Every structure is written in structure tokens, then in C-alpha cells.
Amino acid sequence: MTQTAEKTDLAQIGVVGLAVMGSNLARNFARNGNTVAVYNRSPEKTRALISEHGDEGTFIPSETVEDFVASLERPRKAIIMVQAGAATDAVINQLTETMDEGDIIIDGGNALFTDTIRREKEVAAKGRHFVGAGISGGEEGALNGPSIMPGGPAESWETLGPILESIAAEVDGTPCVTHIGPDGAGHFVKMVHNGIEYADMQVIGEAYQLLRYGAGMEPAEIAEVFREWNAGDLDSYLIEITAEVLAQKDPETGAPLVDVIVDAAGQKGTGRWTAINGLELGVPITGIAESVFARALSSATAQRAAAQEGQLPSGTITELNVDKAEFVEDVRRALYAAKLIAYSQGFDEIKAGSEEFGWNVDPRDLATIWRGGCIIRAKFLDRIREAYDNNADLSALILDPYFKGELENLIDPWRRVVVAATQLGLPVPVFASSLSYYDSLRAERLPAALIQGQRDFFGAHTFKRVDRDGTFHIEWSGDRSLTEM
Prior knowledge:
By secondary structure, this protein is of the alpha/beta class.
């Protein structure tokens, strides 16, 4: 029986925007004992939610913003789940004008963190609280327990904490939610989470490509390989669902589903934002950036078709000349290594962003709350948390003794796989770029010395010396003497 509270009752939390994510989040709150106020600009969606799922808990539906706000207990708490950008700003303005001092507006969408910083200042100036909360887990997570990354004022977390904990995923009894930091910290961390997700998905795709077109395996066979991998070090949500996708047959043709899906990957912007911000912060998140470019290239269908019709020369393509089982194991280890680089680079960017904006984000918190509910949940997040427990100031995650030991067993297979892919003519942009990143970190000297010499030659940009302090310039157009600047 549908449970709709009387208007004299008040809701602990409200949800604005009742598309699938907002609707599922509202249901999650209601299922966990919260009275939930719900509002959508189109009343039909509100009515549909109550009609179809009203028996899952107690809801207070409203058809105006004013009624919605009036149905919330103080301090009022309302989560916005609408399209990022102008639509979000419009709802924030409506709520700010209708709510009172001390009330809390939460943006649960994938907002750009700089927009969240701006919004928090604007809302705070009017005496309200604004919280940008990253919510990961997709539609299933929203309904059954997501990983939640709220930013905003610490005072808001004191009020929101218990209600968010009531709906978050749990691992070992610990809710996958915590206060990330002030203003845009929550949405920044969610942005980088999604960037890691892009890289993770791409290297899984590259592993599939190698097994399919390098080892000549069919999707159903590769699905079994991924199921085996998911029982070991690679245990993660994305590996698990990869096996499901590869095993799926097309209901209409009976062909492997992966063969009837157009090979052009979409994106909604968070990976691109992560790459852009990495450039702005000067953090080399090469694997993440390459995964964004890989999606862009996959969607350049006209250009790809022209290249294939024009028969771009391939050079000499060799067949795989190794034992199949050994190759599969090499790919598994290379995949593990590239995934580690993706997480390591993501944590580097979070550290840099935290320092840049004064957020004081604790990487141990992220490793804890990403263990459940979110798309990048993985077994080795426990190891990541241990790494930062042992040394909170790690200069790079892969320098932790445990992960450094893992890489000793992964590096040779990783190199073999990149070489094999090159010989086979198969693109592995993230496998390869992540390996170059790794080798750059461990290189005693990089060609940057030559680049700096070139910069000094054409632009008098100066250079540092290895043998003494100071800044120097060569008089290139003159007697080529050394000048200390």
C-alpha cells in the first residue's frame, strides 16, 4: 500500500529531480526509514514515483517548490538531481529564495567543481549552506547503496552525515561516505574518481582487444577468462561486469552482443574535466588523458572510415608467436599494472588539487569509501588504504613497498604485452602511455634537459645546472658564453 505522509508531517530529506537517478535515490532514502519529500518540475514524474514505488517507504509529494520546502523539517535538507549547468543553477536559485537561514542545498549531480566553489560562495552569502556531493554507483548504486563524496561546510556534514550514512553502501560495517572537505572538494574527488574509471575501462578494453584479435579468442571464451581474473588480484566491479557483457548474446541475432555494438564510446565530460585539470595542475595523469583521447578517437567515425578506405600502410604485422596461456597471463599482469598506474595518477591529482585549494583531502578516506557502491570499487583499495596508513605523505602510490613489490612481478609481462601489441598492430594507448610514465619516473635522466636547451636557444628561457645553484643563459646569437641571470 502506498504510504504518503500527511502534509502536517515533515520529511527528513527532500529530492528535487526524479529522473532515474533522483527517483532511485529517493527510494533508497525511503527504504531506509526516512520520510522523503519529492518534487519534479514535471508533476507526472512525481506521480509516477508515488504510483509505482510509494509502498517502499513514506513520501511527501509536492507540485510546487514552495510546498516542497514547506514539507521539510528544519534545518531543511534538499538534494538536487537535475542536469548539470543552467538547470542546476535555476533550481539552486529557487531553493535559496524559498529556504531559510541554515538550510542545506545538496547538489548530487556531476557538477564541475569550480561551479560548486562559485555556488557555495553565492549560497553562503545568503545564509544557506551548499554541499556539492559526488555520488557514484550509477542507477543501481543510487537505489541499493552508492559511494557518496560530500564537500561543503563541516557544519553541514554534522547534520547530513547520519542520513547519508543510512543510504550509503557498506563494507565491513563502514558506510562508504565521509566529509571530503570544504566547497568544491566533493565534486573534485568525484571528477577524478570518474577519470580513474575512464582509464580503468580503457585498459580493460585493451586487454579484451589483445585477447580477441591477438590470441584469436571468442567473446564467450574471454568472458570466462575475466571471471577467473575477478577471483584474484583484479577482483573489481568493472572486471565482473566485463565478463557479463562479453558473455551476453544479442537477443535478436544470437551473435555476441559486443559484436553488434557500434565501437564508438560516449562520454559526459567528467573524464575530460579530469584531464584538463591535470594539465592545469601540472600533474602527469597520462593514462587518464589517453583514455579520454581513446574515446574521442573511437567516436571520430568518419575519420576512421576514411583512414580504412584509404588503406593507411600498416607496416609489417606479425602473428602472435607465443604460447596462448602464457600470453593470457601476461595480459592479466599488464592489466593489473596499468590499473595501478591509473589509481596512482588519480591520487596524485587529488593530492595536488587538495593542496591548490586548501581542502586537506585524506587519501585514506577515499580508499575506504571507494571500496563499495562506486564504479571503481576493487579489492586492492584495501591495499591502497594500508599504503596511506603506513605513509600519509607517499610521493606516489606505486612507491609503497607493497605495490613496488607487485610491480616487480608485473613489469616484464607488461613490457612483453606492449611489444606484442605493437607487432600485432593493435592500439594500446593506455597500456603503452602508462608504461612510458612508469619508465619516466624511474629514469635517471630525461630528454627535458635538451628541451630546456632548445627553449633557451629560441626564447632565452634560461636553464638550471646540475653542478650549482642559479639560473643561466647561453648567449646563442653572440659568443655563446654562459651568463648567470
